[in-house]
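Notes from hallway chat w/ T.B., transcribed later so I don't forget. T.B. wanted the structure written out for a chain they're using in a teaching module, and asked if we could keep both sequence and C-alpha cells in one place. Agreed to drop them here.
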Amino acid sequence: MALTGIEIYKKLPRTNCGDCGVPTCMAFAMKLAAGQAELSACPHVSEEAKAALDTASAPPIRPITVGVGADAFKIGGETVLFRHEKTFINPPGIGVLITDAMSDDDVKGRIERLNKLEYERVGLKLKANIAVLKSAKGDAASFEALAKKVASGTTRPIALLADDPAVLSAAAKAIADKKPAIGFATAASADAVAALAKELGVAVIAKADGIDAISALTKKLSDAGLKDIIVDTGARKIKQALTDQVALRRLAIQKLERTVGFPTMVFPCEMTDNPMKEAVYASIFIAKYGGIIVLSDLNGETLFPLVVSRMNIYTDPQRPMATTPGIYEINNPDKNAPVLITSNFSLTYFIVSGELETSRVPAWLLVMDTEGLSVLTGWAAGKFVADAIAPFIKKIGIEDKIGQKRLIIPGAVASISGELEEELPNWSITIGPREAAYIAPFLKQLK
C-alpha cells in the first residue's frame, strides 16, 4: 500500500539540504508520494529507509535499463500522462526486427544500418537503440546462431523473442554477457522464462492478450521474484495497440496499479507492410507511450524524423538545452582571428557556429554559461551582462591565444558595450550584427 507524504517524510534525513533538487525534505516526500520523483534523488537516505521506501516511492512506471555498456539505455520511470505536466523522462528505444528466417545479407544489412545510422542534432547523438531478434523457425540452433552473429556485429542491446522457452534459452545463454531482454513469457511459459531470466539476471518481456491478462501475468512474474518486466499486450492493429498503451499508462499513473506499471514493447513492423505507414505508427507510439518500438528495417528517410520527434518530445520543456561553455575554434583561427561571444543555449550556439563555418573566416567563438538561456533572455535575466562576461573573459584563457584584444558582441545586446569597455579596459568592444545570418558579411568587412 502506498505511503502518505508524512509517512515518507519520517523516514527521510530531514536535513532540508536541497541536494535532491527540492528545497525541503517535506516537499520531496510529497513528490515521492505523488510519484513525481525518485528516491535515488536523495543522496543521504539511509539503506534502512531505502528498503522501506523503495516500493512505496517508486515511479508509477518502473525504470528498466536495457543492455550493458555505453549503448545501454533506460526506459520507463515516467510519472505523468502529459509532457506539459512535468516532463517525459526516458525516451523509448527504437529497434529493428531481425529473424532467423532472413538471409545472411538481410541480417548483415540490418546490423550495418543499426550501427551506422546516427545523426547529430543540437549536440545530441540520435540513433536506433536495439536489435530485436525473433525466432521464426522455432529451431534452437538457428536462433542461437543468429544471436551470436548479431552480438558479434553490434554493441547495441539485444532483445530475444521466441515462443519456445528451450529455443529462447539456447540463444540467451549464448549471449548472456550482453544481458539481453528475453521473451515471450506467456501464461503457459511464465515459469520457465522467469527461471531463465532470474538465472541470467535479465529483463523479461511478458506477452498476453489485453490489459487484464497482462496484469495477471506480471503479478505472477513479480511473485516469482522478477522486477524488470516489459509488457506486450499482443495488439497488432494500430487502434487496439494505441488504446492499450493509453489504458496502461492511465492505470499506472492515475490508479497507481503496480501490476501494469511497466514499460511496453510495441510492433509497428507487424501492423502494416507499408514502410511509410509503419513510420507513422511508430511516431504515434513515441508520443503515446511506447517503451521499445520495433521497426521492420532502418532507413534514413524514416528513422531520422522519428529520432528527431523523439528528441523533441523527451526534451524537458522546463530546462533549456545547453552547450558546454568554453572556447571553440572555428576554421583554424590564429592569434589574429576575431573573437566572438554568445550564450550556451544550444540553438544559438549551433546557428552562430554554423554561420561562422560557412563564412570560412577563422574565428574564436566564446560560449558563456547562461544556464541555457538565449542571448536576449540571458541579458534580461542578468546572466549575459557586462559584469558576468568580463570575469568569464578573464578566466577562460582566450587572452593567451590572441594578439589583438577585440571582442565582438551580439548586436541584440549592444547596450552593454559601454559597461564592457569599463570592465575590460584592455579590450576593444565591437558590436556585431543582430542576426546570425549577417555574421559572414560582417566578418569579411571587418578590418
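Follow-up for T.B.: The chain has three domains: 5-57, 64-313, 326-445. Might be a good example for the class.
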